[in-house]
């Protein structure tokens, strides 16, 4: 059988097994005395299940990067293929699939999944096999002591308090800072930990916590939760919502004719949330948006153009870049930088280089020194304004003419 025929048969078998192979761009180019086979990067994303709206964002961003990389000649002179499996938003599936990627598919490199639980599950497999593990979205760095893991998001080593600190800094800058706060959170691991840290921050600042409520991740009926929030009458709602939960909670509050004066949602699906009629003034975290000064970061112009074109074709609900897409793209930039610097596919050597060197990404310059390889925190706050996300804090990240809209 010819090489081309073998590759076609192999891809067909993978597709039959439920594997999505993203292989874009130019043919592989041989290195002097090296392999001409594609470099195979394996990973999972939640393409189905409750995290699918965000998983789709990461998939499109990965496609955009792989295409760009291959058009630039690939990695180390070889084309790159991304073998992407659907973990169905289940950490147990992620664990099994990463083991499959390493042992059966024998991928050359790994790319982490989306979501704290799946990242931790996959990281355990990577650690067992001594594999480099770049990940885009782990919300609790303390869960990642593995020395070969590297986070794309600049969360810093202790976001459990730092995230709420920056949020309350933003509201403290307004004419009427909040005096009471309600914490309502999913039990999704990172959301729950951030909510607990947030309550500690609120107490240290003298804010009265009028409600502390937890619900199971994947909850869809928020009627009772909305009623509890309305009864508590907080000046600020701190919602540890993940994915579509934010929009579902907004709908539930609308049904009882209630909208908090100030509300923050932790990790909402960007499109369904900002387009919700009840979202005006809502805030959340960010690390990248489609406006200056973020557009000056390394590779940002190409990333924005490619991603926006692809996301519209894919029919996703929010056809614009945001920090989720940027985090995935930055994770690939980090992987590329390490391989090129080392000059070979050597997990331990690539990890050692990353710990010692900065990488310019669409999220800015990432450094991996310090606790959990996390570098310094660089978290911002964005706000839903007229159906768009606008970065409002710190002020230097606001687009021209923008302001923090507060009651």
Explain what this protein looks like in three dimensions.
The structure is a single chain. This protein has 407 residues and is an alpha/beta fold. It has helices at 3-16, 52-71, 91-103, 116-129, 159-172, 189-204, 223-232, 245-255, 270-274, 300-314, 323-342, 347-356, and strands spanning 19-22, 39-45, 80-86, 109-110, 133-135, 149-151, 180-186, 208-215, 236-243, 262-268, 283-286, 359-361, 364-366, 380-385, 388-393. The longest helix is centred in the first third of the chain and has 20 residues, at 52-71. The radius of gyration is 21 Å and the shape is globular. Residues 1-33 have low confidence and may be disordered.
Which helices and strands appear, and what pairs or packs with what?
Elements: H1 3-16, E1 19-22, E2 39-45, H2 52-71, E3 80-86, H3 91-103, E4 109-110, H4 116-129, E5 133-135, E6 149-151, H5 159-172, E7 180-186, H6 189-204, E8 208-215, H7 223-232, E9 236-243, H8 245-255, E10 262-268, H9 270-274, E11 283-286, H10 300-314, H11 323-342, H12 347-356, E12 359-361, E13 364-366, E14 380-385, E15 388-393
Parallel strand pairs: 2-3, 2-4, 5-6, 7-8, 7-9, 9-10
Antiparallel strand pairs: 1-3, 11-14, 12-13, 14-15
Helix pairs in contact: 2-10, 2-11, 3-4, 5-6, 7-8, 11-12
